[in-house]
Design brief:
Elements lengths: L2 H52 L7 H21 L4 H14 L17 H23 L5 H32 L3 H16 L8 H51 L1
Helix pairs in contact: 1-2, 1-4, 2-3, 4-5, 5-6, 5-7, 6-7
Amino acid sequence: MTPLMITLLVIAGIAILIAIGYMNHVVENNKLEKKRTEIELNDRLRRCGEITETFPGQLMTPGLKLLLTRLELNVNQRLLNLNKNSAPIKARITELNALAAQGESIPVNNPPAPIQTEAKAKDVRFLLEALHGQVTRAAQDGFLPANEAKHWIKEIRHILVLLHIEFFNNLGQHALQQGQPGQARLAFERGAQYLRKQPEPVLYSAQLQQLEAQLARANSTVLANSKQTAEEVNELNEGMKEVEADAEWKKKVIYD
């Protein structure tokens, strides 16, 4: 075997080792990418499920329910591509296809959950933020057409406004029931200011009129209570003056 042949064999051996190393690197990268994608999709699936199951019934519409079903279906189909023999994923896809096939007739079983506290309002706002993220990502993936994604982003903003309307209204009504017209006035005033600041306030003119009417009633109650309190203070002062005058008269009689 000539030196040239030995050199060529050495070079070939090195090339084979480099190729093997590269192939192993590619395989490992593919495994890591698959795992990363699987984790991301499962997280999106979890978020979709949380929104679907916990969103307040009074704010959930058939259209929104259908959108969530389609988003979950898309994620499950992508997961099935990574786990082609997964029976649970296949079963869930069958369920979701049956629901999506109903269109706007899809059942909405979410129970109403009144927005009566700031904590509850924040929880629902977080759900809306998560929904916004799901819609944006689905548009980036090409699953949702751009015009449909824009429609749902606008609808999410609308639902956020409805959330605030319900929160301020419930807050004010609760304060009135507790005999706190001052707190009620503050809640109705905050609600009215929030609606006036909307980009399209005309869309909420009816709700604004309602809040302004409630604000006027609460304000009247506050003024009436203030007047009554002032009268009671005056009566108390007059009574104290009479008591003091009577005490002075008795003191004068005793010492005289």
